[in-house]
Design a protein that fits this description.
Layout (H helix, E strand, L loop, with lengths): L3 E4 L27 E3 H20 L9 E4 L5 E4 L2 H7 L5 H17 L3 H20 L4 H21 L2 E2 L5 H12 L5 H18 L10 E6 L8 E4 L1 E4 L17 E10 L19 H24 L4 E4 L5 H9 L3 E3 L4 H11 L3 E2 L11 E11 L2 E9 L5 E6 L3 H24 L1 E4 L3 H15 L5 H22 L4 H13 L5 E4 L4 E4 H4 L2 E3 H20 L2 E3 L11 H4 L18
Parallel strand pairs: 1-3, 6-15, 9-10, 9-12, 10-11
Antiparallel strand pairs: 2-20, 3-4, 5-16, 7-15, 8-14, 9-13, 13-14, 16-19, 17-18
Helix pairs in contact: 1-3, 1-4, 2-3, 3-4, 3-16, 4-13, 4-16, 5-12, 5-13, 5-16, 6-7, 6-11, 7-11, 8-9, 12-13, 12-14, 13-14
Bound molecules: adenosine-5'-diphosphate and magnesium ion.
Adenosine-5'-diphosphate (ADP) binds next to α4 and β17.
Length: 575
Amino acid sequence: MRYVFVGCHHVLRNTSMVGSNIQQLRPAVNETTERLQGRDAQDANFSAAKALAEIVRTTLGPRGSDKMLITTDGKVVVTNDGASILDRIAIEHPAASIVAEVAETQADSTKDGTTTAVILTSELLRAADALLEQGLHPTTIADGYRLAAERALEILQKETIEIDPHDTNRLQDVVHTVITGKWEGTDAQFLAELAVETVQAIEHDETIDRRNITRQAVAGGGYRDSEVIDGLAIDLESSSTSVVAPETEFPRQIEDATIALVDDQLTIETVDGLGTVNFDTPEQRQAFLDYEDEVYERYVATIADAGADVVFCQKSIDDPIRYLLAREDILCVERTRKDELIKLGRATGAQYVGTVDQLTSTDTGQAGLVERRSIGNQELAIVADCSDSKQVSILLRGGTKHINEEMKRVLDNCLNILKLAIETREVLPGGGAVEVMLAEDLRKHAEGIGKREQLAIEAFGDALEALPRMLAQNAGMDPIDALIDVRHRQHEGNVTAGLDVLNGEIGDMIATGVLEPLAVKQRAVTTAYEAATMLVRIDDIIAAAPDTDTDEHHEEHDSNTLHTDTGGYPWSIGH
Ligand code: ADP
Ligand code: MG
């Protein structure tokens, strides 16, 4: 592995370790330059975009290298995920930000293909640069790129291979293509199997509802101890499961459980509503104790009357209440996270109530089995066979916090790709096969155009071919020979010939199982085309006054905003 050091969080411009290309990520206009025009503006923008692509270029493909990111506070992150890198580095240059947004859009929509999209954008700009030098007008280039992108999307659709969404091996191939390089050989296979098992467990009518998947990091054990379990796993770490009095204990296992969800604390409220109580006389003290008992008993009676076997409470539960509930054989879980409560509601059909006093049997939900299980160093409540939706949890084990974070990220990536593959059934051969085919087609297509735009269409093809070139280069293969070889094989009729970079040879991508969802490639082509044409059209960069209207989308994303679709629950579902 080759490590490249990239400064992070504001250190980009200061650090001595970073390459000179980082300098180009600085804004083109600043205190000293107020305006850049014509070629100067284009140059500044293009170099910034290229600089960004240079950073992620060597990570492309299963043989890509890792990057070590060092934050200003000394945290180290080692990753070879393009999106992960671009997320973390500080970018000041506006053009570089536009390209970084390409990555973000790509990551948001498909969770894969980020590096591809960024490299393609940069290659399109590199080609545009040469065309501008030749005297082509930016509008002509943009028009040519549009024609090329349209054509490319058409061809991608046409070349799609249909997969059987129940074919476990094929699904594993697709996930494998996403994660090879991110995780070493057998580890990648392990994660691929875990991801496929997960989505297959909740697949319903060939659709995957990501909300039915819970990921839970569990301390203790090794990476290979990670497992998929049937049901919704709720972390009991912040809930005390022991009961003070020795004669009582919470049930470990409840069949046909009735579930209640309470969005409140089960504690006593002092008479005056304040935290401390002062007594002047023993009678006052006794009166308070009586009041306490009465409230506790009322709480427990309400819960028992509602028929609940398990209560999940968002806040804390007082010891005496826990004791009384245990005596009634009712399991209570305190400090359940809001997102877990929401999931429990969706899964069991329970409505959560604001205070215990409001709880009735109509608010409760059902689960076939609720079980307390100790896994690793952690205790979990597993809520399985839920009445309203099938739930599955992935328990991720082992590793340091940072490995865990990266694992979650990769896993998310896998789950999204599988969702795409299962729901659309459309995949394409990877390993540069599609890019070579598109390039060949675009070159031919350009010949028939007979206008200046044809140069831009050809250039679009060349830009696409830069991807297999980089894949080969990163794998230590000779990029020129590899490209010629792939072109030759495709010319001979094997249109799915591509780079089998793990074996360092040219092979058939269907046979090797290097397959990617169509949507990933479509998205990469579209976002790269959009960003590149936008930057090509810019010929003037002017320093402007700060934009004060930045709160535009605030409301939409505010997790406290109530959303009607969620039955009044805050719209914040954590995966
Ligand atoms: P991105 O961020 O664009 O997804 P990756 O580093 O994941 O970047 O690399 C994706 C590229 O690697 C795709 O073009 C894919 O086809 C290719 N690829 C993945 N696995 C293989 C493989 N085993 N052989 C050849 N190419 C592969
Ligand atoms: Mg990828």
